[in-house]
């Protein structure tokens, strides 16, 4: 900052300016502005002298920028202004001020570079990128969006995005737009339909994020992906999944019809005291296998019912103690046959639940059946208790256990963990999948825990009344 008299001689100079020039005050006082010539280009020097003159004559000079280079060669960007010093309405001097705006300039340059970077990114993106103002009007569209929409930028800028959405999508989009604004959060993977200029409906996947200008909501930025191909594949997949389920269903029904009479006749042979022991033994083996086949067929039928959401649930108020005790009674013999200890803890105070009697029993029996199948020594326990508005039922065994990796997969369709022996072939890998689905239909949860050498525990919780 320098103060000059009306003739342009320097009256005073502040410390910051002195420091920049690296000279003592005395070297300046009484001199004119040209003492600064080492700091500025001749062109800029001319500008300074001109603006001091103009100001001295009462004229107006706008702020202007100029480069300043120190003795050491450091470059600064300065913003200069000149003002008059008045005494009793008379101009007595001039204040010549320079402000260091190097940082600001740098930040600005960075911003321009950054904006340029984002502009290039958006312009070359394979996904559509658009911005919409707070009234829903398009303020930017990139070339990919122009292609997806089948319209030129010049046709659609400043028009409403909703004009290009299918009727079904308009409401959803508006909801999401309001949500984004209200919650100040981005919303991802919203599926909408765009109407192409040729009338075709284009399925799109949209991500929406709010935009702010001076801390005020200014609209949203959306990235838009054309998912026509993905939809096609999904539709094909659904179709083939449906065909597979239909086939499974028909095959299972067809298999079931002949097995039922086979089982019936085998029953007759086994209970016929007239037939020889040998024949009855063979019949018993056949019957075990017929039962296995029937279980497999029933599992396949259940899975196809679950897949097509046609499994009927007869929901009623159930006495959970009664159901669990029935299951215990039914499974007791099989557990004793393997010489395992059966620990049962079912408190009489266990509350009622709403559920399907047959299906819940099926789940409990399946879990106990698995526990028996995978346990050769020790015990099997069924423990029930009330916990946090739910009944919690655990089926614990001291069997071979399940590895951590496999725990994640056992509830998926057809999955059988590797057990290291031929037992693997005995089941279908469908039981736990069916159990999980049934429990979820009861608004419950099922999960498994295992510590390999100590066995496995299957737990489930179902909301009680
Ligand atoms: P599976 O018909 O094979 O029993 P499930 O769906 O009932 O089919 O079980 C899937 C797999 O989970 C089984 O093959 C087995 O590897 C594992 N599994 C289930 N229950 C137990 C258990 N109590 N102990 C050890 N492994 C188990």
Distance between the termini: 83 Å
Strand order, largest beta sheet: 2-1-5-4-3
Largest sheet: 5 strands, antiparallel
The name CATH uses for the topology of the largest domain is Heat Shock Protein 90
List of distinct ligands in this structure = adenosine-5'-diphosphate
Question: What is the CATH class name of the largest domain?
Answer: Alpha Beta
- Count up the domains: 4
| Second-tier CATH architecture of the largest domain | 2-Layer Sandwich
Task: Please identify which CATH superfamily of the largest domain we are dealing with.
Answer: Histidine kinase-like ATPase, C-terminal domain
The percent range for helix content is: 40-55%
Q: Which spans have pLDDT < 50 for at least 5 consecutive residues? A: none
Number of strands: 17
Q: Shape from CA axes?
A: elongated
Number of H- or I-type helical stretches: 12
Whole-number mean pLDDT: 90
Order of helices and strands: EEHHEEEHEEHHHEEEHHEHEEHEEHHEE
Rg, Å, rounded: 42 Å
Structural class comes to alpha+beta
What is the percentage of strand-forming residues? 25-35%
């Amino acid at each position: 900052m320098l103060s000059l008299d009306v003739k342009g001689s320097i009256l005073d100079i502040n410390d910051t300016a002195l420091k920049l020039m690296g000279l003592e005050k005395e070297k300046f006082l009484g001199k004119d502005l040209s003492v600064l010539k080492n700091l500025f280009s001749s062109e800029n020097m001319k500008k300074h002298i001109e603006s001091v003159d103009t100001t001295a004559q009462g004229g107006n000079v706008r702020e202007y920028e100029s480069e300043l280079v120190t003795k050491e060669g450091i470059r600064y960007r300065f913003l200069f202004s000149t003002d008059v010093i008045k005494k009793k309405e008379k101009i007595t001097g001039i204040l010549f001020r320079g402000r260091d705006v190097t940082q600001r300039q740098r930040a600005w340059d960075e911003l321009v570079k950054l904006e340029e970077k984002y502009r290039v990114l958006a312009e070359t993106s394979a996904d559509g990128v658009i911005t919409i103002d707070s009234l829903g009007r398009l303020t930017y569209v990139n070339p990919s969006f122009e292609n997806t929409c089948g319209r030129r930028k010049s046709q659609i800028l400043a028009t409403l995005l909703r004009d290009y959405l299918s009727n079904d999508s308009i409401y959803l989009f508006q909801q999401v737009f309001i949500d984004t604004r209200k919650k100040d959060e981005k919303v991802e993977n919203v599926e909408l339909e765009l109407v192409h200029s040729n009338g075709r409906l284009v399925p799109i996947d949209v991500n929406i994020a709010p935009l702010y200008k001076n801390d005020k909501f200014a609209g949203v930025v959306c990235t838009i992906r054309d998912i026509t191909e993905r939809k096609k594949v999904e539709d094909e997949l659904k179709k083939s999944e449906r065909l597979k389920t239909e086939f499974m269903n028909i095959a299972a029904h067809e298999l079931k019809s002949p097995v039922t009479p086979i089982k019936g006749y085998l029953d007759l042979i086994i209970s016929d005291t007239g037939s020889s022991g040998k024949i009855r033994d063979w019949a018993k083996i056949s019957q075990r296998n017929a039962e296995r086949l029937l279980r497999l067929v029933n599992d396949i039928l259940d899975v196809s019912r679950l897949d097509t959401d046609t499994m009927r649930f007869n929901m009623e108020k159930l006495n959970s103690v009664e159901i669990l005790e029935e299951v215990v009674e039914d499974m007791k013999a099989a557990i004793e046959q393997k010489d395992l200890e059966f620990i049962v803890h079912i408190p009489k105070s266990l509350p009622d639940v709403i559920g399907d009697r047959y299906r819940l029993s099926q789940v409990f029996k399946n879990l106990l059946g698995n526990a028996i199948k995978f346990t050769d020594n020790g015990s099997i326990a069924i423990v029930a208790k009330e916990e946090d508005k739910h009944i919690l039922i655990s089926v614990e065994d001291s069997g071979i256990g399940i590895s951590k990796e496999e725990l994640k997969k056992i509830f998926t369709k057809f999955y059988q963990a590797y057990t290291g022996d031929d037992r693997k072939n005995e089941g279908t890998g469908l039981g736990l999948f069916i159990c999980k689905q049934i429990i979820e239909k009861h608004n419950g949860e099922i999960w498994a825990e295992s510590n390999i050498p100590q066995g496995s525990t299957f737990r489930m919780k179902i909301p009680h009344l």
